Structure formats: C-alpha cells, structure tokens
Amino acid sequence: MNAVMRLLEDLAYRGLIYQSTDQEKLDERLEREPIVLYCGFDPTADSLHIGHLLPILMLRRFQQYGHQPIALVGGGTGLIGDPSGKATERTLNTKEVVEGFSNKIRTQLSRFLDFEKAENPALLANNHDWLGELDLISFLRDVGKHFSLNYMLAKESVNSRLEKGISFTEFSYMILQSYDYLELHRRYGCELQVGGSDQWGNITAGTELIRKSDNKSDDLFGLTIPLVTKSDGTKFGKTEGGAVWLDADKTSPYVFYQFWLNTDDADVIKYLKYFTFLSKDQIEDLAQTLETAPEERKAQRTLAEEMTRLVHGEAALSRAQNITAALFQGKVSSLTASEISEGFQDVPSSTIEGIELPLVDVLIQVGAAKSKREAREFMQNGAVTVNDERVTDTSILVNTLKAIDDKFLVIRRGKKKYFLAALS
RNA sequence: GGAGGGAUACCAAAGUGGCCAACUGGGGCGGACUGUAAAUCCGCUGUCUUCGACUUCGUAGGUUCGAAUCCUACUCCCUCCA
Questions:
Q1: C1’ B78 / CA A122, Å
Q2: ipTM of the complex
C-alpha cells in the first residue's frame, strides 16, 4: 500500500523543489489549512510548451492536496518582458498580439486545473486587469518606493545583464511581478508563489514587497522548480521540428507521444517523477523493470501514455498509439484508406497532381528530401520505403507504385520519418 | 593614429595558377546491428535535365587559354604598437 505522503514530502521525492523559502514553516502552514498559491505564465507565444508543464502540474499537485491554485496569465507583464534567464533584450510584441496569446494560453491552462471543485476551485486571473489600469504616479509612490535600486541591481536577472545592457522596461519587470503577488495576496489571500528556477529573484522580490507595503511578518512563501535537464547534455523539450508545444495543432498528439516515448533510459525515471502523478510505488516498479528488462521500455511507454492522456486526452492517446503501432511494426499497407486519413492527420502530407510524376519529385513535395540530388541519394541508400516496400530505383514513376486503395502512398524515409502523399 | 594577420561549404580547418565541387575533423543525414536505445561499423553531406552540366571559396572588378589560388579597390574580423 502506498502511504499517503505529505505534499512537500511528495514533491521532495519527485525532485521538484529547487529553492524554497523556509521549508519547515511552509510544511507547517500547508498542514494547518489550505493555502492559496499562484504561478504566472507570460504570453510570449500562441501556445504553452512542455517547458511550462512543471509549473502547471505543480499547481495541479497542490490542488490535489486540497490547496487553491491561481493560474495567472501575464497579459500585462507579457507586454514588458521578463529579463530572467535571457541574455539579451527582447523585442516587444504589440498589444493585439499579446492579447491574442493571452487568450490562447488561458484556454490551455484551464485544461489542467479543476475550476468546479467545491472546496478549492482553481482560479484563472490575468494581470492585465490590474497592471493595465495602474497609473504611473501611484505606481511610483505606492510600489516603486519599496524597491531600492541596490536591491534590484543585485538580482541575478538584472546583474547579469548590466554588461550587455538592459532597458528600463525589462529592469522594471520584477516590480510588476512583485505587484502581482501583492495584488493576489490582497484579493485572494495568496501566500505562495511557485515558478521556474529562474523566477527566484522575482518571487522573493514579491514577498519582500508584501512585507513592506502591508506590514506582513513572515507568512509568505516562494518555491521554485528545477530546470529539466537531459543526461546527454542537450536541451530538454526540443525535437527536430523545434519546441514541443501543448497545442495539438502545433505539435500533434502523435509527435507528442513519440517525444516522450523516445526518452533516454537515463532520464525516464526522473521524468516519471517530475511529470506524472504516478505513485512512488508505481514509479519504483517501473524503475525495477527498466533494470531487468530495458528492452520492454515499459517506463517510456508509461510516461508517453500518461503525458499524452494528460495533455491531449484519451482519444488522442489511442490515436497516437494506433499510428505508432502501424508505423513501427511495418503494417502500414494493411491499413485502409479511411484508417490512413484518420491516423495520418498528424503526419506531413501533400496531394500529388498527376500520377506520371517521378517519385523523386514526390519526395521533395512531401518534404522528405530537400533536393532531387538528396532524394536520389536517400533512395540509393535504401532509406525510402513506399507502403512498406523499399524503393531504390531513382527513375520510378508514381503510377507504377501500388497505392493503398488507389489513393495513398505512405512514404517512410529513414527509420521513423513518415510522409503521406494522396493521389488526386 | 601606426604595423601585421585573416575572411574557404552547417562549424572547425587544409588548399597559394590547371590533378579542386575543393584534404581532414566535428556535426547532420542514411544503412547494418539494436530496445523506435547507447556503443560500434559502413555510406552520403553545392545544385541539376547524374557516366555529363551548371553555380560556389568575404564583395566588386582585373590579369590569364585557365584562379579558391595572382593584381586592384572595398567591407568586416583579429593581433601587436601608440
């Protein structure tokens, strides 16, 4: 039986605590009564990506333990730009763009939290609501007065940029984030802010501000989450196509599933702890299996399954699994046309006009090759497969190939890159 | 301000009149092996109408039958001296 762990104990087991304000006090506070906590997400793109996942899940973990999470969309701070973790000044997005991003992100966030829960429903807020109508004089008098320049300059996010340069705009960011914390504290009694490891400076600036402006003693907390790393030293969260987004239109559930499935042995247990809600016992079991039967890749399968279900839902998961099964077990040609158009929605595809085309041209059209030269090279290397049949003849025409239901060519290049060509 | 050195394909780095589409290493991509792994081995890595042709070696001109290689100007970078 899995013993019920205290929240902080659970987080510690999962390695999810990087830095924290007085942990003993926080533990006491969490055990005493539900806490209101928040985490902010700035709209810097039209979707969140898996780098945002840990903070989101952190809110969810707290909610599971009976606490009340607030997901804050940075509709205001997103107009300013956080210098934390950034080497250079960023260009500003227009208000319209940021507003568009905010809406998308708000929708995404809402999928991960329970807003209906009776006791401790999650809340969604947008700091544009208060930052947008802040007037300059009151801001400088009421908020700015509590920040000393020395304190601000000493912050890593600012200090590291003094050489390269930082605008007043980004310099002021920490004050705005601090003000968010203050505002949420006043409105909802928020006492804890969580964030990525680069947010420590901004978080402590916030607790500082609340203490000073509201004369609070010491009951304000901050918690940061470690940066996710990969054992091979490459950056976590990137695939060939770039970032792994949470938006199904930007990163298909199939690609998302594959991303997790391809996790290295050395990282998979760590990720199970970080990203899933599996119990300690379940994770230890998987660790055991990884030792004894690594080829089963049960840990990776479980991880991919849990994550895809969590982010995209049960239906998308089974679709991703179906595609995976067909693609990696060489059963593509046994699929029917309707199964293919259903299953290959997530695969780059293209419609072929005229069946007299050389296959070489088709490879370029679907994106399997950059040039004809490269296309021929792939074929000569035996890298190209059409409907499971290896094709090495570089002069072959499309109409001599057997299409599935006279309609589809499933083209594979290399071991796992698939492309779909539909004959018109 | 003065003196010298350099700019070559994704990166690093050879090449100093024809044998250069350009040595080599890294990276990347393919293949074999395998667990859709790691390690290893093999192949490819300018483009095309592929036994051939065309466009590339900072930019623009010039010399020559022929230039990445020589000359001129320009741009940028580095080092040393002031």
A1: 58
A2: 0.81
Whether nucleic acid strand B comes within 7 Å of the CB of A377, the answer is yes
Distance A163 CA to B6 C1' (A): 28
Residue A360 and residue A395: Cα distance in Å, rounded? 8
Domain that holds residue A393: 339-423
Residues contacting residue A358 through CB under 8 Å, at least 6 positions apart: A395, A396, A397, A398
Tell me, what amino acid is at A141? R
- Nearest protein residue to nucleotide B37 (CA to C1' distance) is A264
Residue A60 has pLDDT above 90, yes or no: yes
Q: Do A179 and A198 fall into the same domain?
A: yes
Does the C-beta of A415 come within 7 A of strand B?
yes
- Is the domain of A194 the same as that of A294? no
- Same domain flag for A215 and A246: no
pLDDT tens per residue, range A97-125: 999 999 999 999 989 998 888 888 999 99
A186 in contact with nucleic chain B (CB within 7 A):
no
The side-by-side arrangement of strands in the sheet containing A221-225 is A19-20, A221-225, A192-196, A36-41, A68-73, A123-126
A240 CB below 7 A from strand B atoms: yes
> Which residues of A are the active-site residues?
44, 49, 52, 86, 90, 177, 198, 235, 238-239
Q: A253-302: per-residue pLDDT in tens?
A: 888 898 999 888 888 999 999 999 999 999 999 998 888 888 889 999 99
Map tokens 């509590």 to a residue.
A146
